[in-house]
Amino acid sequence: HPRIDLFLHGAGIEISRNLLNKTPEEIDRVYRVKVAGLVNFLDAFGENQIGNVVSFSSVSSLFGNPGQTDYAAANGFLNVFSGQGKSRFLTIAWSAWSEVGMASRGPIQELLQANDVEFISPAEGEEIFLGELSDFLTRTNEPRRTVAYFGRLGQKLQPKLFPPGRQSSENMESSTASLASSHTETLGVWNCSEKP
């Protein structure tokens, strides 16, 4: 195989429903699209042939979201997965985007709007993505990086564990209360893999 310098993993499906009302097949489908999709590709192609892997995760993996236990778990896997150490991994845990993506239509959009969640515009998301990608590609000594971007999450979804100010943690396996946070007026940015 020819070498791939950058592989972008943005696959995902969402079936928002109480866990007790989901079938095992639905849970498996939601989970496997993100987890098996990435792992199988790396196994089939050969991780040593891939320079950088960029995955789109979700802030549901950090805060949870009603009806999305399986989706949150799958994204949580992406947040910490680093393969066999032969590729570099950047994971961006996004809040909901407006106009595009699964959160911009149907029941999930209605749920988030009812909870007063602030959506990321496509223009803002594009700027964030290109900035994070450029920053990651220039940091050649950083094998894995996970960041989260979110606007106002609404009263019912707003995390309660995070104190104001900036903190750091070595990786996503640390307590969620020690995730790095840096807030602007409209957008929260948590670098979940930054070291002090």
**Major β-sheet annotation:** 6 strands, mixed
Unreliable spans:
155-187
> Radius of gyration over alpha carbons?
16 Å
Number of E-state strands? 6
Helix content: 25-40%
Average predicted confidence as pLDDT: 75
Strand order of the largest sheet: 1-2-3-4-6-5
Distance between the termini: 39 Å
Beta content comes to 15-25%
| Shape descriptor | globular
**Structural class by SSE content:** alpha/beta
User: Counting H and I runs of at least 4 residues, what is the number of helices?
Assistant: 5
- Name the helix and strand elements from N-terminus to C-terminus, one letter apiece: EHEHHEHHEEE
Characterize the structure shown.
There is one protein chain. The protein is α/β, with parallel strands linked by helices and 196 residues long. It is 33% helix and 18% strand. It has helices at 24-45, 60-63, 69-80, 106-114, 122-138; strands at residues 4-9, 50-58, 88-94, 144-150, 182-183, 188-191. The chain has a 6-stranded mixed sheet, with helices on both faces. Helix 1 (24-45) packs parallel to helix 3. The longest helix is centred in the N-terminal third of the chain and has 22 residues, at 24-45. The radius of gyration is 16 Å and the shape is globular. The termini are far apart. The model is unreliable at 155-187 (pLDDT under 50).
